[in-house]
């Protein structure tokens, strides 16, 4: 199919495409803004930083110890998400009103390769609730590690803090609207091309030349009812004038 033909098909029903895209994009925007629950995210940071002491009692940098701490990261990720830690959080912080199963599903543990940093993230429809949960998990994990691993090498680097103007991480209204715009535009163009492809009626001289390969000698314009009424009136006036002229003679 020629490019010019595709463009002419789209131009013919451009109004349909515009209306469809506007309706879809507006609907997605309205639904996202007014009918979806915003989700907020709170995070806290832990660090594995047990250090050795020299003869004077000062901490020293031991690369072997750092490498050992890094190797413990994967074990700590599993321990943080375990039922042992979550049960302790639920028991120690009953005001959170959450279950250990819920916490195990919602906790997100992020680590970076060759880093001693562990980031905990929790999402909730209320930022204050997310902040309290993630801080509680971090504190319980720090307190329980010495009993589980027999080593005290976890420190809390940063706790989630209250924010005055916290922004939700979901839904992303602008991104959803852009996706709806692109998707509806492609769908509308596809529907228009399908309609044009299925429509095999001949409407103008271009269609005659395209489908029949014949040259048109002339065309009959479409006559509207109001045009017929105008012509009948003009004829009546002409006939009345002729009669009046014959009587005058």
Automatic annotation (TrEMBL):
Domain annotation Polysaccharide chain length determinant N-terminal: ranges: 2-91
Location of the protein in the cell: Cell membrane
Molecular function terms, GO-annotated: protein tyrosine kinase activity
InterPro entries assigned: Bact_polysacc_biosynth/exp, LPS_length_determ_N
Stretch list, region Disordered: 227-249
Transmembrane segments: 14-34, 175-195
Source organism, top-level taxon: Bacteria
GO cellular component term of the entry, any: plasma membrane
Record membrane topology: Multi-pass membrane protein
Keywords: Cell membrane, Membrane, Transmembrane, Transmembrane helix
Family statement: Belongs to the CpsC/CapA family.
Protein name in UniProt: Polysaccharide chain length determinant N-terminal domain-containing protein
Organism: Paenibacillus antarcticus
């Amino acid at each position: 199919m020629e490019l010019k033909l595709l463009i002419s098909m789209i131009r013919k029903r451009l109004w349909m495409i515009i209306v469809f895209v506007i309706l879809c994009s507006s609907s997605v925007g309205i639904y996202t803004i007014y009918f979806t629950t915003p989700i907020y995210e709170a995070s806290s940071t832990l660090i594995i930083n047990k250090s050795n002491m020299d003869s004077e009692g000062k901490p020293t940098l031991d690369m072997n110890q750092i490498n050992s701490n890094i190797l413990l990261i994967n074990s700590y990720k599993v321990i943080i998400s375990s039922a042992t830690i979550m049960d302790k959080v639920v028991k120690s912080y009953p005001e959170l009103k959450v279950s250990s199963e819920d916490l195990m599903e919602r906790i997100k543990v992020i680590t970076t390769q060759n880093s001693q940093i562990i980031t905990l993230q929790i999402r909730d429809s209320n930022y204050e609730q997310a902040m309290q949960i993630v801080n509680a998990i971090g504190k319980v994990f720090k307190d329980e590690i010495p009993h589980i691993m027999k080593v005290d090498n976890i420190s809390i680097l940063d706790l989630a803090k209250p924010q005055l103007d916290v922004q939700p991480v979901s839904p992303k209204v602008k991104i959803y609207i852009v996706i709806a715009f692109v998707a509806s535009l492609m769908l509308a163009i596809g529907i228009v091309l399908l309609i044009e492809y299925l429509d095999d009626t001949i409407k103008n001289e271009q269609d005659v030349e395209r489908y029949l390969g014949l040259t048109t000698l002339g065309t009959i314009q479409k006559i509207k009812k109001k045009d017929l009424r105008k012509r009948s009136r003009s004829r009546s006036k002409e006939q009345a004038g002729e009669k009046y002229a014959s009587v005058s003679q």
